[in-house]
Amino acid sequence: MLYWLTELSDGGDFFNLFRYITFRAGGAFLTALLFGFLFGRPLINVLRRKQGKGQPIRDDGPEGHFAKAGTPTMGGLLIVGALLTSTLLWARLDNGFVWLVLFVTMAYGLIGFADDYAKVSKQNTDGVSGKLRLAIGFVIAAIAAWWATVLQPEAMQMHLALPFVKDTLINLGFFFVPFAMIVIVGAANSVNLTDGLDGLAIMPVMIAAGTLGIIAYAVGRVDFTDYLDLHYVPGTGEILIFTAGIAGGGLGFLWYNAPPAAVFMGDTGSLALGGALGAIAVATKHELVLGIVGGLFVVEALSVIIQVLYFKRTGKRVFLMAPIHHHYEKKGWSEPQIVIRFWIISLILAMIGLATLKIR
């Protein structure tokens, strides 16, 4: 919205700063962070009054989690609100990629909100049917996948780019759409599975979003793509502003989610943010790199899949409890140990993901 101030510029004054994506990304970060600090406590107070007993705690979960009973959920509203406000304020609203990632984020956020509301109102952990959530999620992902192909250059539509390999695109044809759908749905649900400890999910999300934001900025600049041998996707640079909003809103939320959490993110936040990561990866043609940058989320999801399949086949468990962060809880790791070590792993994976920009 503020980009229109460039029309007041003669090319050498303050208003000219609004032409620069990096300047507006900084503005988006600060706006989202301020939003979190201003509205965090009032939102928590409202959620506490409305929800009463707070988020239901699983009976079969780690024993230490019973002490968290009464903590309100739906804290993702704070992140989503900060992200929406900062993006609309600082991004170019004539950019299709901005609206694409906002659409996916808000749509998945609504799914998560419905699930959180069902859990709180019924005071059980069932929520919305898993099959219904997946079905709606795949519909949203299908729209996003088609939308992304329309926005991308014709030579890249329905193609898959390979990391570490330059000037290579694999034509998936019609199969690109279901592939992109799996990326978006998988990212959303992987982040959702990771959100099980205070502060565990939000920092890896911010790290992954920041990394993808840098990639989006590079992919959207022809001078960078020429130098790095990347595929040029015009317009993706504006996504950096969106990811800056995730970082600012995420930090604002973490202030209240740090152990012991005053509020949980809930599915409202985890599905929205996970879907956003998937949408950015599809928009920038870096779907496979998301698997590296978001490797922690992949491991969390795989631990659940392996546990379920192995138990059905043998009646035994591979992990003491899934997702894998609960496995380490059962092994005696403290919650802060798990959270901080997982943050470190996320940062390492992000560095590896960024390295794919140059190693080609």
Automatic annotation (TrEMBL):
Q: Tell me how this protein sits in the membrane.
A: Multi-pass membrane protein
Q: Record-annotated residues binding Mg(2+)?
A: N192, D267
User: GO terms for molecular function, please?
Assistant: metal ion binding; phospho-N-acetylmuramoyl-pentapeptide-transferase activity; UDP-N-acetylmuramoyl-L-alanyl-D-glutamyl-meso-2,6-diaminopimelyl-D-alanyl-D-alanine:undecaprenyl-phosphate transferase activity
Q: Which cofactor does it need?
A: Mg(2+)
Enumerate the transmembrane spans.
20-40, 74-91, 97-118, 130-149, 169-188, 200-219, 239-256, 263-282, 288-311, 338-357
The catalytic activity, as recorded, is:
UDP-N-acetyl-alpha-D-muramoyl-L-alanyl-gamma-D-glutamyl-meso-2,6-diaminopimeloyl-D-alanyl-D-alanine + di-trans,octa-cis-undecaprenyl phosphate = di-trans,octa-cis-undecaprenyl diphospho-N-acetyl-alpha-D-muramoyl-L-alanyl-D-glutamyl-meso-2,6-diaminopimeloyl-D-alanyl-D-alanine + UMP
Keyword set includes Transmembrane: yes
Does this entry carry the keyword Cell membrane? yes
- Tell me the keywords, alphabetical order: Cell cycle, Cell division, Cell membrane, Cell shape, Cell wall biogenesis/degradation, Magnesium, Membrane, Metal-binding, Peptidoglycan synthesis, Transferase, Transmembrane, Transmembrane helix
Q: What is this protein called?
A: Phospho-N-acetylmuramoyl-pentapeptide-transferase
Q: Which organism is it from?
A: Shimia gijangensis
Taxonomic path: Bacteria, Pseudomonadati, Pseudomonadota, Alphaproteobacteria, Rhodobacterales
